[in-house]
Amino acid sequence: MSSVIETEEHHALRAAVAALGQRYGREYLARVAREGGHPDELWADAAKLGYLGVNLPEEYGGGGGGIAELSIVLEELGAAGCPLLMMVVSPAICGTVIARFGTDAQKRAWLPGLADGSRTMAFGITEPDAGSNSHRITTTARRDGDDWILTGRKVFISGVDIADATLIVGRTEDARTGNLKPCLFIVPRDAPGFGRTVIDMELAAAEKQFELTLDDVRLPSSALVGDEDAGLLQLFAGLNPERIMTAAFAIGMGRYALAKAVDYAKTRQVWKQPIGGHQAVAHPLAQAHIELELARLMMQKAARLYDAGDDMGAGEAANMAKYAAAEACVRAVDQAVHTLGGNGLTREYGLASLITASRVARIAPVSREMILNFISHQTLGLPKSY
Questions:
Q1: At residue 52, what are phi and psi to the nearest 5 degrees?
Q2: How far apart are the first and last CA of the chain?
Q3: pLDDT by residue (tens digit) across 25-59?
Q4: What gap in Å lies between CA 366 and CA 379, rounded to an integer?
Q5: Collapsing DSSP states into helix, strand and coil, what is residue 32?
Q6: pTM of the model
Q7: If you compute the radius of gyration of the chain from its CA atoms, what whole number of angstroms results?
Q8: Counting C-beta atoms within 10 Å of the first and last residue's C-beta, which end of the chain has fewer, N or C?
Q9: 365 preceded by cis ω (within 30°)?
Q10: C-alpha dihedral over 24, 28, 29, 30, to 10 degrees?
Q11: CB-based contacts of 39: which residues, under 8 Å, 6+ apart?
Q12: How far apart, in whole angstroms, are the C-alpha atoms of residue 13 and residue 92?
């Protein structure tokens, strides 16, 4: 494999996105969340500059790049304190799945809007009883003439209130075996029988979480994305970018917290020199930096493999990247808060809320334990524990 060190174009993209992020910053996102709004201005600016659709095909208005480029955008916005969570969902998961498996009509209908930010799409896989186990999904799709009828529930689905549609993972029955196979359906926001309820979260974020109910939602045959028989291949074509983008989200957040702590440690003086001159303060910050850099390297590898079409290799690397980035982020945030002492818990310094936010990457979109299951079984060849 060629070097994973980034190209000049990637460096230029990082610098440009960082400049955009600096214009908004943590204060902007915190205010939007407090007011119960959405980061519409930042979303529109990122879209106008071509950042939201950088991974989508040029023929549909995208940048013609890949997840490598999209992950750079999210990481740099995160490092500036203003990550856009819907980037993980709309262009990365839904845009990728439609670009790879959608019909020409679906591509024409959705990709230009996803690329220019004028349309967004949510993604619904998690269920109340299935948790991280995508094999236990109970949302079913049955044929009724030319239509599909969807029934089921989803939980912890981001941004459904602002999304034009939700890409729902359901299961169809295989007529030959009777087994249920995963399939993807585009469900419009206003589809009859498609209900949503806000979940009251401790997490202070602009993107709200929802529980969804699908009560005999009738969809035309054109709502099915891809081949009814492709099953897990199509599903993981969306889940691997999701893991890579979650890693980018976590690395960006970790970098933001670490930068705040380093600035503080350089100037905060209690004894004869700044506290950053003491190894008990300096070494944990250096360690956090190393761990974030290592996680980014695995994220770059995962993105490179995915963009090269190696779905199997990307699956392993994407899970490792997501695991490493989540751990590095949690430790960086914890150390940053600790470095600031009491100030780390004040609203003024804006780090305390990251204690909750940093844990998201350990939990979603798949728990670290399920990733360890994947690596122990798929990579190491150990017996399955479930």
A1: -70, -35
A2: 34
A3: 999 999 999 999 999 999 999 999 999 999 999 99
A4: 17
A5: helix
A6: 0.95
A7: 21
A8: C
A9: yes
A10: 150
A11: 24, 28, 29, 32, 82, 84, 206
A12: 17
